[in-house]
Amino acid sequence: xxxxxxxxxxxxxxxxxxxxxxxxxxxxxxxxxxxxxxxxxxxxxxxxxxxxxxxxxxxxxxxxxxxxxxxxxxxxxxxxxxxxxxxxxxxxxxxxxxxxxxxxxxxxxxxxxxxxxxxxxxxxxxxxxxxxxxxxxxxxxxxxxxxxxxxxxxxxxxxxxxxxxxxxxxxxxxxxxxxxxxxxxxxxxxxxxxxxxxxxxxxxxxxxxxxxxxxxxxxxxxxxxxxxxxxxxxxxxxxxxxxxxxxxxxxxxxxxxxxxxxxxxxx
Length: 267
Hints:
Elements: E1 2-6, E2 11-15, E3 36-38, E4 44-46, H1 67-73, H2 89-94, E5 135-137, E6 143-145, E7 153-159, H3 164-180, E8 185-191, H4 202-211, E9 218-220, E10 236-238, E11 240-244, E12 250-255, H5 259-264
Parallel strand pairs: 7-8, 8-9
Antiparallel strand pairs: 1-2, 1-10, 3-4, 5-6, 7-11, 11-12
């Protein structure tokens, strides 16, 4: 497969062999949904259906949380969607988002959010270090945070819309993601430039996802701001990959990541 060479002064292409990844067997389904949640204050509320923090099982708004549980959580027992973001309170708790904040809710893309999202302490971007968070626009117009996926293996794929080799890799990676997603694997495409070399818009991101049948996040990496964290020189080839493990540990950077390496680092 060809790789495009990117630098501040030069863009060129050269031929580089790239092995194709064979399809894998279907992954097992996820385990049971958690039945308790920890509030911002550190207390734990049992959210098992039919259980209550008091002697009564009154659920005035029918959202699956008793009035007593909602009082403890600080949500409105008379409103199933306290923050008005379109997600009921219990659903937000199960997906590790805050039912009291309209700005914090599950992703439209359905990508699972992990409970450790606020616990990551970055140390750096070298292999073996804990990488920092980012907040980038995705194809649905939402802001995507890397640390939301702290319990998963995340492959960051740096690409550009004008890059032919990136288009080939996009198709392969869309298939690979679907094979492994139920085992805690996520791909995030870092789209650094649109077809004209500019910053990708939400429309560009959606076009890229639609063109290659992509279900995983596609985000705008303006001026390669996230990609540059993991580079080993000012010039780099695209597509290039950066593998982030559980706890946001950098496992590989600015390289090609093979299927065996992905499989060996599944959570």
